[in-house]
Write a structure and sequence with these properties.
Two copies of one chain form a homodimer. Chain A is of the alpha+beta class and about 650 residues long. Chain A has three domains: about 425 residues, Glycosyltransferase (Alpha/alpha barrel); about 100 residues, Immunoglobulin-like, CATH 2.60.40; about 120 residues, no CATH class. Chain A is about 35% helix and about 20% strand. The first copy, chain A, is built from 17 helices and 25 strands. In chain A, helix 2 runs antiparallel to helix 17. The N and C termini of chain A lie far apart (about 90 Å). The interface between A and B is large, with 50 and 50 residues.
Chain lengths: ~650, ~650
């Protein structure tokens, strides 16, 4: 018996090890993370069945992802690998970070595969993995730029080289694919490169710098896959920053948001994507280490951003120069940079802060960025992308905003991976039960942390309607807590369980814990007041002086020229606001328009004397610019702007009382 | 007799030739310019006797000019020449255009010498001329950057090389000195360099590009000295632009404002100083050639600038990125770039447009820029300079604004040469008489174009008071016209001759021609309404929405924190405007303050709830930011900001009615 049993035990042990090693298809695997308050629910466990996000995700898989691969091929991004393996004799094309564009596309595919099996996409991923690994050097080094004549420059120009950045995206794609399929070929290639780094770089070896942060969060996630502490430590070393040995200038440390100890940061500054990838990685690092200095720094940086540097759309990064954060309250509209990648980085960071703290304010930012500044980044047909997402556009300026391709094509695959991984953002588990972060029609089929199988279904027309009906189906009746999120924007909200209002306050901007013995078929209704809101911004935001932006639910609205009466210039319109602005706007669902959206109708005003007739400067007493003519205005969701040809558009609009 | 007479005639002839060759010490010598409507009055012919500009000019000569030479020496700018002549063995220092900084300083000295003989300055100029020419190569080439290892790069990187730019400033200095002293040593050096250009460059030879326009206006002025048509033609060739042969990219043509035919320009764009130097040179070229395409282009560009791209201070160049003009109405306050050199270039261009057209609108811009955006560029003590002249500053941002030295130290000597040449801007002659452009205490001792000696004296406390008393003293009674300028800002104005109001309309923004038989001692009184004005800007200037700027006469006012009551934050103030804003502000001359200025007192408001307590975004109905508390505010002339230590400052202020 014993002799027979041993091999069987070994097999079981091996399988157990494999199962432990191949966790569910989560975005972040926080199962063993000591400082995670919340844990991810797998992408595969949530089906988004209909509505806005089902539609966006369908387009993403059917149009965006396939056409972008064609463009990556056409632009030589895959050939950059083939030339190194000798499979093609072509010159290298594109800027030095193009490898990452392909990796990000592959990560998008991997997340699609976590939701549904698509053999075509799987085949593409495997084929690309083969192309990529054929270009990997025996040492583990892999990069299509620093080769041949430029080989001597490896690690010599880390402040711009993007070597670690590309590796980070390779690791993210590899991990997502491994979690989707169990196939660890690309992952092993990535680990081989990391092993190369561990050999030659570190505090007592050669210095290493995240010229563009990204590697940090990838290494922490790799640690969550491998359990190899060296992977976490390498992330920590990079976050501490080795800029002194590399003799970097202070301005470089600002721009890169790396190179000096992360815990010495006090403000969000420099390149917005770099900064928010760095804070994302630092949050991951905190979740594993519990380092209180990190937590303090992260809170401080987060407060700095949301109180003075974030657009109403959830976008970040005000300045084109350096693609950077501006000064506090520097939030220009027409010249907003608000890169799609920066909004995504904002979401990524908040997803990690939410996991660490379980506070609804982070989910508020996620919902805001997702529905607006990220959502705007991809056209409704799924083949045009914004790099910039400005909040005001002339028809002329609009011409350059949505494009199928960018030589720096970071945003398109970033949008694709975000849409593909979206199901993973709706829920989290906690020790005491379940958190519901996002609303929208979907079904979750997962389990509580104690292993109890649990299904939750959301019936709702959210974000167009504020009523969300949850049906809760634990495998068997059981006491636990469901934390339902009341968005910060909800001026009124009600929560019913089994048709009866719950006791206790229902506060906006918080999770409402509903602790009870949940039985299969139990229902929860969350009713959020969707009345339109006219929002003012801080007086120091000079662009918004005298203006309001209209929101309804999580959706920011905009005036686009297409929808206004003939002769009414968007830039010459005024809202006419009463004491209760909610009553000044009428919501109407338009199935036929822009993929089906709620538009807002408003009896506003247009200028008696258009601005085009005014001087640059004139005495206040002769200055004559106000809304004198009634005008029936129509507002569309901001994210749908520029889907009907170039036209003037603005979010922040002048108003009169 | 005949034998005796001939040599005498020769002597007379030689003297006449010399006299013709060495014209009066004007800024622009338009004596023979076929398309000049107005001609310059020499700097030497106008004495600014007292008041604001006498004070500024005194500091300029006594403090600014001497201390800047010390700094130029300390920073190796003169040594850059000495090392080439072997007089010093030191490395070259500073950016590639430093030669021009020295030349501009020398031009300032030359203009001082046009006003008064200062042997110390003359000696310095001669000494520097010697240092410079000792570094000139036998070919005529002269530049301290493109030497030794960089010699091979001469004319190879004209888009950034500044070789012609430096030559242009050398010529301007040389011409001004020649006109001041008759000494043409530096001028001959400059001509030698021009001869070198004429030999090797041009349409059928090597291409030439004004990577930074400046050479164009210098060459036209050189033509006015030499009468050598080749000098004018070379300017014309450069203005037509040879960018195609140099394979320049469209963005370079925008940035440099050169390289393509000047007459193809339609908007002011790109680097502001480059653009306005180019338009200055093009205006000079028009004045000599009468090319109608140039005239049309210049008018179009000027309109583009003054209707959408000029600050209320006369500053230009909105963007730090590329030191560039922005889009129409892109006129941010805190982030205004408004380089001192750009305001000076604006003045230079308008001085030429005024000469060409004789229209008061150009003098309006000159007066505006001079009193505000240029005037602000030098501290009251004369030793600190602004590179940027923003219209709003936090105390923190203020710390970097006034400095004694910049590695690119173009602005300090540019301010110095402008102040030094100022007497040349007060008057012009015309075929029919005299134009009076600027007001202020001064005496002119010159002549009409027919040779009649004419003295004019201005008694006034302008710009602090609007009454200007002219005393007109022709050598003998004579009929001619005096054109007195009624500034565009004058809401009311009166002109009296001999104590009696003239017949006919007195319109703001025009020259009022007073044609009569002028007898010695005749008087003219110009009374301009100096009541304070609250100015609005075009609604598309987003920074100024809901705000006004206060002006009095040509002076723009600002709120600086120093002058406000304790606890009243400049950024939380509101003006309280009645139907007649002039009555809301009280003017008071403060002899002791900021060199003697009129301040404005205003019973305004401060915010009930300071902005620091407000959220980034909140519903309009709960938004609470308005002036609720009366506050006695004091406004100072904008140009005096930041002369009492770093403090918050703003020009455009929120207002309530």
């Amino acid at each position: 018996m014993r002799q027979i049993c041993i091999p069987a035990l070994i097999v079981v042990g091996a399988f157990a090890a494999y199962a432990a090693e191949r966790p569910p298809s989560v975005i972040l695997n926080l199962e063993k993370s000591p400082h995670a308050k919340l844990r991810n629910v797998p992408v595969s466990a949530v089906k988004i069945s209909e509505g806005l996000w089902a539609e966006r995700r369908k387009i993403n898989v059917e149009k965006s992802i396939p056409t972008l691969l064609e463009l990556l091929e056409q632009n030589g991004i895959v050939d950059n690998f083939r030339r190194l393996s000798g499979r093609k004799d072509v010159p290298r094309r594109g800027p030095l970070y193009t490898d990452s564009d392909l990796y990000k596309w592959m990560e998008a595919v991997a997340f699609v595969l976590q939701s549904e099996d698509r053999p075509d996409l799987r085949a593409n991923f495997d084929r690309l993995t083969d192309e990529i690994l054929a270009a990997q050097e025996p040492s583990g080094y892999l990069n299509t730029w620093y080769v041949e004549d430029r080989k001597a420059l490896r690690w010599k120009e880390q402040e711009r080289g993007h070597e670690l950045y590309c590796l980070g995206h390779m690791l993210q794609a590899a991990i997502a694919y491994y979690r989707a399929t169990g196939n660890r070929k690309l992952l092993d290639g990535g680990i081989k490169f990391v092993d190369y780094l561990l050999r030659d770089f570190g505090p007592d070896k050669q210095p290493l710098l995240a010229g563009h942060p990204e590697i940090e969060l990838a290494l922490v996630e790799l640690y969550r896959v491998t359990g190899n502490r060296q992977h976490l430590d390498l992330a920590g070393y990079i976050l501490r920053g080795d800029g002194e040995r590399l003799k970097l200038r202070p301005q470089q440390l600002v721009y890169m948001f790396s190179g000096k100890p992360f815990t010495q940061r006090t403000i969000m500054e420099g390149h917005a994507v770099r900064a928010a990838y760095a804070t994302s990685g630092a949050t991951d690092y905190y979740i594993e280490t519990g380092d209180a200095e990190y937590r303090r720094t992260l809170n401080r940086l987060w407060n700095d951003m949301v109180t003075s540097k974030m657009y109403i759309t959830g976008g970040i990064g005000s300045r084109a120069a350096g693609e950077a954060f501006g000064d506090p309250y520097e939030l220009p509209n027409a010249r907003a940079y608000t890169e799609s990648c920066a909004a995504i980085a904002n979401l990524m960071w908040n997803w990690r802060m939410l996991a660490a703290a379980g506070e609804a304010k982070y989910a508020d930012v996620i919902e805001l960025a997702l529905h607006n500044s990220i959502n705007s980044g991809m056209s409704l047909e799924g083949t045009l992308y914004c790099y910039r997402n400005p909040l005001e556009l002339t028809a002329e300026a609009a011409k350059g905003i949505r494009n199928p391709w960018y030589s720096t094509t970071c945003c398109p695959p970033n949008l694709e991976r975000t849409f593909a991984s979206l199901p993973g953002l709706y829920y989290s588990t906690s020790r005491d039960g379940l958190y519901v972060h996002l609303y929208g029609p979907n079904e979750m089929n997962w389990k509580l942390e104690d292993g109890t199988p649990l299904k939750v279904k959301q019936d709702t027309r959210y974000p167009w309607d504020g009523t969300v009906d949850l049906t809760v189906n634990p495998a068997a009746a059981k006491e636990f807590t469901i934390h339902v999120r009341i968005p910060e924007w909800a001026e009124a909200a009600e929560v019913q369980v089994g048709g009866r209002r719950i006791a206790g306050p229902v506060k906006a901007g918080e999770y409402i814990p509903i602790k009870r013995r949940w039985a299969p078929g139990d229902t929860v209704r969350i009713a959020l007041d969707m009345k339109p809101r006219a929002i003012k911004s801080h007086p120091r935001v000079v662009d918004n002086q005298g203006r309001v932006a209209i929101m309804r639910g999580p959706i920011v609205y905009a005036l686009e020229q297409h929808d206004q009466p003939a002769g009414v210039d968007v830039f010459d319109t005024f809202f006419k606001l009463s004491a209760d602005p909610a009553k000044d706007f009428t919501a109407e669902f338009r199935k036929d328009l822009l993929g089906g959206v709620v538009v807002l109708r408003h009896r506003g005003l247009s200028a008696t004397r258009p601005a085009s007739g005014l001087s640059l400067y004139e005495p206040v007493q002769s200055f004559d610019y106000k809304g004198g003519k009634p005008a029936d205005l129509v507002l569309i969701p901001y994210y749908t702007f520029l889907n009907r040809g170039p036209a003037a558009m603005q979010v922040w609009t002048l108003y009169q009382k």
